[in-house]
UniProtKB/TrEMBL annotation:
GO terms for cellular component: plasma membrane. Its main location: membrane. It is found in: Membrane. Pfam families: CitMHS, TrkA_C. It is a multi-pass membrane protein. This is SLC13 family permease. InterPro entries: Cit_transptr-like_dom, DASS-Related_Transporters, RCK_C, RCK_C_sf. GO terms for biological process: potassium ion transport. Residues 244-328, 339-423 form the RCK C-terminal domain. The lineage of its organism: Archaea, Methanobacteriati, Methanobacteriota, Stenosarchaea group, Halobacteria. The chain crosses the membrane at residues 77-98, 164-188, 208-229, 439-455, 461-478, 490-514, 534-557, 569-589, 609-631.
Length: 635
C-alpha cells in the first residue's frame, strides 16, 4: 500500500495508536508499553496462521527478518534483558539508598539557614543543588527527595512555592544531561546507539561512556541556570500566594468550622462511623474535642456524646442542613487553622500536602473506592489539581498523577504516607529512621559506581548492580526496601518500548521517516537538519514519554545522518539531549508532574516558561554539538 511494505504499515499503525494512548493517557503509559510489546509479539504468529488458512499471501515480520536465526519472541522480550532496563532498575535502588541516609535533608537544612527569606538566594540554592545532584542519582529521584525541602524553604521564607518548584524540575533536567546515569533517557539512548552501531557496522556509534557528553551538559546547565535566574524568574508565575499556613493556602476558611453536639441530638450514642454512614451529606469529621482532649483518626469507633465538639469539613449550605438534621450547634467566632488542627499531638505535624506520585497504583481510583480514610487513618480536606482547588464531593474524584491532597492524620499516619511509594509528602517530615551513620557508605557506593564505569572496563550495568548490592550488604537499605524503591512503571515502559525501536529499524520504517526529513530539507546545511532533529524530538517528548521518543527518534537520526553523510553520533546526541529536556508541558517529563500540583500551575505556565527555554537550548545544544563533536563523520 502506497509503496510501503506490510511490515512498515503495521509498525506505523502501532506507533500511531501508541502516540494516541501516550497523549490521552486513557490507560497508564506502562500499560500502553506492555500493549505495544504484546502486539509486536503477536504479529508474526498470527499472520503465519492467517497465511496457512489462505487469508494472507505471506506472513508479516516486524521484529526479525524472514529466515533470521534470532526468534521474534527473543527480540520482543529483549527489553527486559536490556542493559538499559537493568541499569535503570539498579539506579533506582542506589538513589533509594542515598535517600534513606537523610544526607539530602541535611543539605536542605543548611541551605534553609543560608537563604532565609531571600527569594534570589532560595532560587539560586534550589537550582544550584538539584542540578549537580541529578547528574549522579536519577534526576526523577532527586526531585522527589528535594520537593519537600523546597516547599518548606518557600514557606519559611514567605515565598510562593510556585516560584521555586518549576525551576526545581527544569534544573533537574539540566543535571540529567551531565552524565550517563543522570536520567533513564541517557541510559536507554546509550543502549540503542550501541546496538545500531553493531547492526549497521558504524564504528563511531557505541555505548556512551560515563562522561561522554559532560562538556555539553555543563554548557546546557549553565545556560539553563542563567535563564531561570533572569528571564525564567520573571516569567514564572506565583500561582500560590505565600501563606501563613496550609489551611490558608488551600482556601479552607469557608470549609472548616467547629460544631457542638446538643443534648437532644439524634446521633448521641452512635459511633462516628455509623453517623457518617447514615448521612448523605458531603461532610468529614476531622477531629474530636472532648473535655479538652483532642482526638484524630481513627474516629470511627468513638461513641458520640453530648457536648462533643467536632471540627468538620463541609460547605456552608451543607452545614446548615447538617446542623438541623443531626442536632448540632455552630460554635461562634471559631477559626479552624493549621495550629488548631495540629493541637492533638503536642505540636507534632499532622497536616501536610501529599502528591500522587507517577507510577502510583492509586491513579484512577477515588477516595471512596480505595477506602482512603480507613486505609490510611487520615482525612483528605481538599484537592489541588494544577491551579484548581477542589473542596466538595472529593470522595468521587478520580486521582491523577500530580494531584496534591491536603491531608490531616496522626503523626504515625503521616509517616506511613511518607514511606508509601504511591505518594510524595511535600513537607519535610521528621523521620527518626534516617540512617545518617551510613552517609559516607552510600555516597561512597555511588562514587564507586561512577568511577568503575568511567575508569575501568566494567560496564555501567554491572557497576550499578554491584552498587545496588552494596547498598543492601552495608545496611544502607533493607532487603525488603529494594522492591519499593524501584519505579516499576518505568521498568515496564522501557521493556515495552525498546522492541518498538527494533521493529522500526527491522522493517525499514526508520529509513522512511529519515527519507522524509532529508527530503524536506534538501538545501539545508547539516547543522540546520541537526537543529530540526532536536526540535522534532523535543516536541514529541513534550506530548509522550521521553523514553518512547528516544526509541522512535534515534534510529531515524542515525538514518538521516547516514543519508546526509553527516556524523551519526552528533545526531544521536541531539535526540538524547532533546528527550532529556522537555519543558513545555507538565506531561513531557515526570519531574514536571511532580511539581504540577504543589506549585498550583496551569498547563499554559509550562509553555510560558518552558518554550523560550526550549528554543534557547535548541540553539545552544545544536551549536555545542557541532563545535565539540563536529558534523562530518569521523575518518
Amino acid at each position: 500500500m502506497f509503496g510501503l511494505s506490510a511490515g512498515v504499515l503495521v509498525v506505523f499503525a502501532i506507533i500511531l495508536a501508541a502516540l494516541a494512548l501516550f497523549v490521552t493517557e486513557v490507560v497508564p503509559v506502562d500499560v500502553t508499553a506492555l500493549g505495544i510489546l504484546v502486539t509486536l509479539l503477536l504479529v508474526q504468529p498470527v499472520t503465519e496462521q492467517l497465511t496457512t488458512w489462505g487469508l494472507l499471501a505471506e506472513p508479516i515480520y516486524v521484529l526479525t527478518q524472514p529466515g533470521s536465526d534470532v526468534s521474534a519472541t527473543s527480540q520482543g522480550l529483549s527489553g527486559f534483558a536490556s542493559t538499559a532496563t537493568i541499569t535503570v532498575l539498579a539506579m533506582f535502588i542506589l538513589s533509594a539508598g542515598v535517600r534513606r541516609t537523610g544526607v539530602i535533608q541535611i543539605l536542605g537544612s543548611k541551605i534553609a539557614a543560608y537563604t532565609r527569606d531571600d527569594e534570589t538566594k532560595q532560587l539560586g540554592a534550589t537550582i544550584g543543588l538539584v542540578s549537580p545532584i541529578s547528574g549522579f542519582i536519577n534526576n526523577t529521584a532527586a526531585v522527589a527527595i528535594l520537593l519537600p525541602m523546597v516547599t518548606d524553604l518557600a514557606q519559611k521564607g514567605k515565598t510562593s512555592p510556585s516560584k521555586l518548584l518549576m525551576p526545581l524540575s527544569f534544573a533537574s533536567m539540566f543535571g540529567g544531561t551531565l552524565t550517563l546515569i543522570g536520567t533513564s533517557t541517557n541510559i536507554l539512548a546509550s543502549e540503542i546507539t550501541g546496538r545500531l552501531g553493531r547492526e549497521l557496522g558504524i564504528a563511531s556509534l557505541d555505548e556512551f561512556s560515563m562522561f561522554e557528553f559532560t562538556s555539553l551538559g555543563i554548557v546546557v546547565m549553565l545556560v539553563g541556570m542563567a535563564y531561570l535566574m533572569t528571564v525564567g524568574r520573571w516569567l514564572t508565575p506565583a500561582r500560590i500566594k505565600p501563606a501563613e499556613d496550609l489551611t490558608e493556602e488551600f482556601e479552607m476558611a469557608d470549609y472548616l468550622t467547629e460544631v457542638v453536639v446538643r443534648e437532644d441530638s439524634p446521633i448521641v450514642g452512635q459511633t462516628v462511623q455509623t453517623a457518617l454512614q447514615d448521612t448523605d451529606f458531603d461532610v468529614d469529621l476531622v477531629q474530636l474535642i472532648r473535655d479538652e482532649a483532642v482526638f484524630l483518626e481513627p474516629l470511627g469507633p468513638k461513641v458520640i456524646q453530648p457536648g462533643d465538639v467536632f471540627a468538620v469539613r463541609t460547605d456552608r449550605d451543607t452545614l446548615v442542613e447538617l446542623m438541623d438534621v443531626d442536632g448540632l450547634d455552630l460554635l461562634p467566632e471559631v477559626e479552624v487553622t493549621e495550629e488548631e488542627l495540629e493541637a492533638a499531638e503536642n505540636e507534632a505535624q499532622n497536616l501536610v500536602e501529599v502528591v500522587v506520585a507517577p507510577g502510583s497504583t492509586l491513579v484512577g481510583e477515588t477516595l471512596a473506592s480505595m477506602n482512603f480514610r480507613q486505609r490510611y487513618d487520615a482525612t483528605v480536606l481538599a484537592f489541588r489539581r494544577g491551579g484548581e482547588i477542589i473542596h466538595e464531593r472529593m470522595e468521587d474524584t478520580r486521582l491523577r498523577v500530580g494531584d496534591t491532597l491536603l491531608i490531616q492524620g496522626t503523626a504515625d499516619s503521616i509517616d506511613r504516607l511518607n514511606n508509601n511509594r504511591n505518594f510524595i509528602v511535600a513537607q519535610e517530615v521528621q523521620r527518626p529512621d534516617y540512617r545518617q551513620s551510613k552517609i559516607p557508605v552510600a555516597v561512597g557506593l555511588v562514587a564507586a559506581v561512577v568511577g568503575l564505569a568511567a575508569l575501568t572496563p566494567i560496564d555501567i550495568a554491572t557497576a550499578a548492580l554491584g552498587g545496588a548490592l552494596g547498598m543492601i550488604l552495608t545496611g544502607c537499605l533493607k532487603p525488603t526496601e529494594i522492591y519499593d524503591s524501584v519505579q516499576w512503571d518505568v521498568i515496564i515502559l522501557l521493556a515495552g518500548v525498546i522492541p518498538l525501536g527494533i521493529a522500526l529499524e527491522v522493517t525499514g520504517g526508520a529509513a522512511l521517516i529519515a527519507d522524509g526529513i532529508v527530503a524536506l530539507a534538501p538545501s539545508l546545511p547539516p547543522i540546520l537538519v541537526l537543529g530540526l532533529m532536536y526540535v522534532v524530538t523535543a516536541v514529541l517528548t513534550n506530548v509522550i514519554s521521553n523514553n518512547a521518543s528516544v526509541v522512535l527518534m534515534i534510529p531515524v537520526a542515525v538514518e538521516a545522518a547516514t543519508q546526509l553523510g553527516a556524523n551519526p553520533f552528533a545526531f544521536v546526541l541531539a535526540v538524547t539531549f532533546a528527550a532529556s529536556t522537555a519543558f513545555m508541558t507538565p506531561v513531557g517529563y515526570q519531574t514536571n508532574l511532580f511539581v504540577y500540583g504543589p506549585g498550583g500551575y496551569r498547563f499554559t505556565d509550562y509553555v510560558r516558561v518552558g518554550a523560550p527555554l526550549q528554543a534557547l537550548l535548541a540553539v545552544v545544544t545544536t551549536i555545542g554539538i557541532a563545535v565539540i563533536w563536529g558534523l562530518q563523520p569521523p575518518a
